[in-house]
Write a structure and sequence with these properties.
Elements lengths: L8 E4 L19 E8 L1 H17 L6 E2 L1 H16 L20 E6 L4 H9 L2 H8 L5 E9 L2 E9 L12 E8 L7 E4 L8 H11 L11 E5 L2 E5 L8 E7 L8 E6 L4 E4 L1 E2 L2 E2 L5 E11 L3 E3 L3 E6 L2
Parallel strand pairs: 1-4, 3-5
Antiparallel strand pairs: 2-5, 2-7, 4-6, 5-6, 7-8, 9-10, 10-13, 11-12, 11-16, 14-15, 16-17, 16-18
Length: 306
């Protein structure tokens, strides 16, 4: 697995003539700016097909469109009209758009999926994101506004929130320009996960294969870090690890490690050092890569950091 050294990575594609200026669209207040346009989900899925063609050529697993990342990518497309940057208009980095996001490509000025993919694939940073073998999920935003066509790819590897292709739609965002507020959808709706019936069908298919659960899990608290150890599993492809300060794992941070690994040291949660005296919840499960990812059962431990 190679998630760019497990660091979040962003790459912006700048084209000749690109400049950052105030949009001609409505300004609602000093700290927000409205951006509206057409969400081209058909283009997003055409980009997905091209991405997976490129990944297949190098032996990388295909990416699946994730509902959460798709919503984040469309929102980021609106934000890049206000500020064409991996820094959001409110000053935060792009990864705050979604907890499931670990890589970002952006582009502006390309009119078709094939053109924007050609641009990304001829730029090493963007190409690295697209071909990264550790990624498993993606969200692709394509927003056509009065200023042009804005493209965003958000990459991830957390649990997939499956989705079927939505119809193109007119949408509008109120883009936050400082941290006193957050970017919000003011017209249109976010895409939703597949129906319960579809999810149940997928779950039944996956459960036809049994995966050995993680065994011997031990979590040791140390100074501002947690040390995880477990016994090596047989017949699996790796382990998924999650950490959160919440018992229900809301706001979780997810890691994946390969099958020959039997330990993990966690020193940070969402980019910040673990806090002394704070309790964190950690869980680990095995996984197997088939046509779909198949997971074992979670083993959960809570520990207070020293």
């Amino acid at each position: 697995m190679n998630i760019l050294g497990k660091m979040k990575h962003s790459a912006g594609l700048f084209v000749i003539g690109v400049a950052v200026w105030l949009s001609g669209q409505a300004v609602y207040a000093a700290n927000t700016q409205d951006v509206s346009g057409t969400a081209r989900y058909d283009y997003a899925y055409q980009v997905l097909e091209l991405v997976n063609q490129e990944r297949a050529a190098v032996g990388a697993v295909p990416l699946s469109m994730d509902a959460d990342l798709l919503n984040a990518a469309m929102m980021r497309a609106a934000e890049t009209e206000v500020s064409f940057s991996h820094t959001r208009p409110n000053g935060e980095d792009c990864f705050t758009a979604s907890d499931k996001m670990y890589g970002e490509n952006i582009a502006w000025g390309y009119s078709t999926p094939r053109d924007v993919m050609k641009g990304w694939m001829t730029s090493q940073g963007h190409k690295t994101n697209i071909l990264n073998g550790g990624y498993e999920t993606i969200g692709i935003g394509c927003l056509v506004t009065k200023k042009g066509t804005y493209w965003v790819q958000c990459f991830g590897y957390d649990d997939l929130t499956a989705i079927t292709q939505p119809a193109n739609a007119t949408i509008a965002y109120r883009v936050a320009k400082d941290t006193s507020t957050t970017t919000s959808l003011i017209d249109g709706s976010q895409v939703e996960a597949t129906t319960e019936q579809e999810e149940t069908t997928e779950e039944t298919t996956e459960k036809s294969v049994t995966v050995a659960n993680v065994s011997g899990l031990k979590v040791t608290a140390a100074k501002k870090k947690l040390i995880l150890n477990w016994k090596r599993g047989i017949g699996i492809d790796g382990y998924q690890i999650q950490i959160s300060p919440n018992k229900n794992f809301k706001g979780k941070k997810t890691y994946k490690v390969e099958t020959n690994t039997t330990s993990k040291v966690i020193t940070k949660y969402k980019g910040k050092r673990l806090k002394s005296g704070k309790k964190y919840y950690v869980r680990v499960r095995t996984y197997l890569k088939l046509d779909k990812m198949v997971y074992g059962n979670w083993k959960t431990v809570s520990k207070k950091v020293k």
